[in-house]
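Provenance

Sequences were taken from public entries as deposited. Structures were produced by running a predictor on each sequence independently, with no templates supplied. The record for AhpC/TSA family protein from Flavobacterium lipolyticum is shown for reference.
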Amino acid sequence: MKLKLSIFFLVLPFIMLAQHSFVLKGVCFKKANKKKIYLTYKANGKSITKSSEIYNNKFVFKGEIDLPVKAIICTDPRFYMTNLNSKIFYLEPSSMNVKLDIDDLNTIVISGSKTNDEFYALHNTTEKEKIHKKIDSIRELSRFYSVKMAATRDNSLKIQFQKSLDSLDQQLDQLVDQNIKINRQSDFEFIKKNPNSFITPDLLEYILAEEDNQIPYDTIKKLYDKLGPEVQKSYSGNQLAEKLNYFKNSRIGSLAPDFKVNDLNANLLQLSSYKNNKYVLLDFWASWCGPCREDFPFLKEMYSKYKDKGFEIISVTKDEKQDLWRATIQKENIEKWKHFSIKENKSTIENTYAVTGIPVKILINKEGNIIGRWIGSSVEIKAEIENRITEIFHN
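Predicted structure for AhpC/TSA family protein:
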């Protein structure tokens, strides 16, 4: 009996290890010998990238993951993704099989992953497929008319082709909006019905970061609280919990998280130094962001009107190239207000203020509380900001 127990405990670590291993076996439809294929995913918060050489039209990936995780398979080593060269799917700690066309990963068929089956079913409903086919058809027609218009010298034909293109653009916009609405609805229904699915935290994180913020933070937090323990412990679950905390601390009504950085001129810049003194507008931008730069004339107007009444702007750049950032500030003539670089300061401000895209503008009152938050750039958004600031300084 002791011998059997000894053997059991010797074997147990290997059994536990096997439970956390994945094997992804692939077969190519076409000849692809000596070509390479690549896989990337995250395990314990670390990004892992693997490559496999295709031999006899077969390849294998092996690794260790505790729980199902989102992954990308790609034929480009740099992971410059297109519809043809890459596919997002879910790895499972199990044995999985893949069949694919090396020239078109859209044809990929993956078996052996329950989570990926759920992912595929969610994104490939009959209703969604119909819309995708309509969108593809309209894009193909648009290409056809564009070629025809470029080839003709007949102005009357050019006008007809342009009218057809305008009509197709309008149809495409409507279909894209319809597709977004259907996706949001199906994602939300899936989340409510499947709290134990490892897809659910990824869907919740996407909804949390949506630009229109149609679903309130409190609703998402309640759905997160209903997730199964294993799902909450997963990498995606932990990421969602972290982002929920950031959103909680950076939403309207919250005390604005403090930060201490060096500004454009290497002077100390601390948000809390403006408390009880000035209203502050945080402007998240980058030199390569067209909509961000389109807002500068408006910001200059607001700053000119209200800087002497207790209004300050702090522009926060995502620029990687500091020379471009500095040159843009000079070119746009916006040196008058405060600027700092996330990269230069190794700042985590994007996380603490839950900024997932740019432009983002956040208005902070003299008490240090967030009283406005705007994502994106539009005439309507600028009007809202102007009305809010005007109301503050004219009362």
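The chain has three domains: 14-112, 126-250, 260-393.
The chain has a mean pLDDT of 88.
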